[in-house]
From TrEMBL:
<dbReference type="GO" id="GO:0004746">
    <property type="term" value="F:riboflavin synthase activity"/>
</dbReference>
<dbReference type="InterPro" id="IPR017938">
    <property type="entry name" value="Riboflavin_synthase-like_b-brl"/>
</dbReference>
<comment type="subunit">
    <text>Homotrimer.</text>
</comment>
<dbReference type="InterPro" id="IPR001783">
    <property type="entry name" value="Lumazine-bd"/>
</dbReference>
<dbReference type="InterPro" id="IPR023366">
    <property type="entry name" value="ATP_synth_asu-like_sf"/>
</dbReference>
<comment type="pathway">
    <text>Cofactor biosynthesis; riboflavin biosynthesis; riboflavin from 2-hydroxy-3-oxobutyl phosphate and 5-amino-6-(D-ribitylamino)uracil: step 2/2.</text>
</comment>
<feature type="repeat" description="Lumazine-binding">
    <location>
        <begin position="98"/>
        <end position="194"/>
    </location>
</feature>
<dbReference type="GO" id="GO:0009231">
    <property type="term" value="P:riboflavin biosynthetic process"/>
</dbReference>
<feature type="domain" description="Lumazine-binding">
    <location>
        <begin position="1"/>
        <end position="97"/>
    </location>
</feature>
<feature type="repeat" description="Lumazine-binding">
    <location>
        <begin position="1"/>
        <end position="97"/>
    </location>
</feature>
<keyword id="KW-0808">Transferase</keyword>
<keyword id="KW-0686">Riboflavin biosynthesis</keyword>
<dbReference type="InterPro" id="IPR026017">
    <property type="entry name" value="Lumazine-bd_dom"/>
</dbReference>
<keyword id="KW-0677">Repeat</keyword>
<feature type="domain" description="Lumazine-binding">
    <location>
        <begin position="98"/>
        <end position="194"/>
    </location>
</feature>
<dbReference type="Pfam" id="PF00677">
    <property type="entry name" value="Lum_binding"/>
</dbReference>
<comment type="function">
    <text>Catalyzes the dismutation of two molecules of 6,7-dimethyl-8-ribityllumazine, resulting in the formation of riboflavin and 5-amino-6-(D-ribitylamino)uracil.</text>
</comment>
Amino acid sequence: MFTGIVESIGRIIELDSRAEDARLIIDTADLELADMALGDSLAVSGVCLSLVEKHDRSVVVDVSAETLRCTTLRDLHRDSRVNLERALQLGERLGGHLVSGHVDGVGTVVSRDPVGESLQLQIQAPRALARYIAVKGSICVDGVSLTVNTVSGAEFSVNLIQHTQAVTTLGALERGASVNLEADMIARYLERLLGER
């Protein structure tokens, strides 16, 4: 479980394709690794992955064919920047919203417009995911917890303050970029519960 509050921007050191799977070696920059153990979860641009190796300033994670198929991790290359977040520990502050790291779909940045000192991103979500996106609701974009500002069909907008632009990869997104999207899990569970009636 994660919060969508990015702790560090990592960099792909090596990407090793293995049949249909892949192994990533990630420079974790200033991410604190001392309390992490093999098998622990790490959100990599919003995708929950398990540590298979840990070094002083880097980690190794394996990515399944299914994860590659369903996320933007398939587009990574050497030197790609990724948002990193360690799993939530009980008793910590919950600054964003509850995020599972299970990507619901890949969206596309339709536009990026400065609004004062902020940046507004307009994102096209997959049609099946649109029903879970609500104005003033939460959405996770590449592992970043954000508030939805507007919704029009399958398109929605989010606002990035300067801090978010500086400490995540979102500020560098260009028009046409693909992003991992995870809808608010409460909306998904509500739909399931109501659908059973």
